[in-house]
């Protein structure tokens, strides 16, 4: 359909292909963007190059396999000559905000503030002229490491070290790797770990997060704290930080959540996610007159009109995931299928 003239493609829809490539370049590498949509722009560029008649409307393009409604809408924007999405989003500010939001602990609002204060690059932020929290400074220092995805086998290796340290503290410790890893993804943004201790009530009140982190620091696995529990010895404690397998490995984000033994099943559901699945399961529970959180499934929860809880209600299920699915009358959903 098209021929190469040395400078590039020359088909009738080449300019549309270039527009899609601009969108692709704009979004690529921006964490938090839907990577499926981004690849869609890349594929759309290829499709535009294969079509040997001129495309004149979005709805005409919609009939081409691989062009869905949102790509057709982009085509209409391009054809109208109006300042479409790419124009508005391809600004220096948008690019800087996308860049700064990749720093651990920097949200959209703060990224915008940094732009308004004059920052234009990661190196600008490293000059010390901008105020950053201790956690953000670590995020900046480890910028390249932390924005990289963690391959599945490396998550597993980190987990195995943490598991053996935890079980050395007490062989009644239960420990699992959670988050995107448990959902079967090939790579993860961080390593999420859930722990509890089986035993008498009295025992389970002594959380092990403090001793575990001490040991992991001594081993050299844990290198930085980002968020530490208010009470290190509470049965429910959350630690967030950074660690690495060795000095030749990248620094990786690690989250460790410890919960009382009786909450195991509810915490498994919560920490497996994904976040959207959790939201829909919680909403479903509420419609059935229950309340679901990381501790358990409750009935008789009293709420204000705006949804804020007045009473916890009575615990219905929490020990296993299956107990909670059963109590809600839901069919078992394997972790690999827990997406919206
Ligand atoms: N979670 C949640 N709501 C949040 C944050 C987290 O329900 N606001 C739950 C669901 C997540 C799990 O905790 O799946 C782990 O959180 P992560 O942020 O580590 O997300 P994932 O592990 O799912 O993905 P990633 O690979 O990006 O770490
Ligand atoms: Mg995770
Ligand atoms: Mn996490």
UniProtKB/TrEMBL annotation:
Residue window of the full protein shown: 534 to 873 of 873
Top-rank taxon, per record: Eukaryota
Organism listed in the record: Kwoniella pini CBS 10737
Official protein name in the record: DNA polymerase lambda
């Amino acid at each position: 359909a098209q021929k190469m003239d040395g400078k590039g493609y020359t088909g009738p829809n080449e300019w549309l292909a270039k527009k899609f490539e601009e969108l692709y370049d704009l979004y690529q590498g921006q964490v938090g963007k839907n990577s499926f949509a981004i690849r869609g722009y890349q594929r759309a560029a290829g499709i535009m190059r294969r079509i040997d008649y001129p495309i004149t409307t979005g709805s005409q393009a919609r009939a081409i396999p691989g062009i869905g409604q949102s790509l057709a809408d982009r085509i209409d924007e391009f054809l109208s000559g109006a300042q479409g999405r790419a124009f508005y989003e391809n600004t220096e500010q948008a690019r800087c905000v996308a860049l700064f939001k990749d720093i651990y602990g920097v949200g959209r609002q703060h990224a915008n503030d940094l732009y308004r204060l004059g920052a234009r690059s990661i190196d600008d932020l490293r000059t010390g002229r901008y105020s950053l929290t201790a956690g953000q400074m670590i995020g900046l220092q480890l910028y390249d490491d932390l924005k990289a995805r963690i391959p599945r086998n490396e998550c597993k290796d980190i987990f195995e070290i943490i598991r053996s340290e935890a079980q050395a503290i007490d062989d009644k410790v239960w420990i699992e790797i959670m988050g995107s890893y448990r959902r079967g993804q090939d790579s993860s943004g961080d390593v999420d770990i859930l722990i509890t201790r089986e035993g008498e009530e009295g025992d389970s009140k002594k959380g092990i997060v403090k001793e575990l982190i001490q040991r992991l620091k001594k081993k050299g696995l844990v290198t930085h704290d980002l968020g530490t529990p208010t009470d290190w010895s509470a049965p429910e404690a959350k630690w967030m930080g950074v660690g690495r397998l060795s000095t030749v490995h990248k620094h990786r984000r690690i989250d460790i959540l410890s919960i009382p033994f009786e909450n195991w099943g509810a915490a498994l559901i919560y920490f497996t996610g994904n976040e959207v699945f959790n939201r829909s399961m919680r909403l479903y529970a509420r419609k059935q007159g229950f309340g679901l959180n990381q501790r358990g499934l409750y009935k008789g929860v009293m709420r204000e009109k705006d949804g804020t809880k007045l009473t916890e209600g009575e615990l219905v299920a929490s020990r296993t995931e299956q107990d909670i699915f059963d109590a809600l009358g839901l069919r078992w959903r394997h972790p690999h299928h827990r997406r919206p």
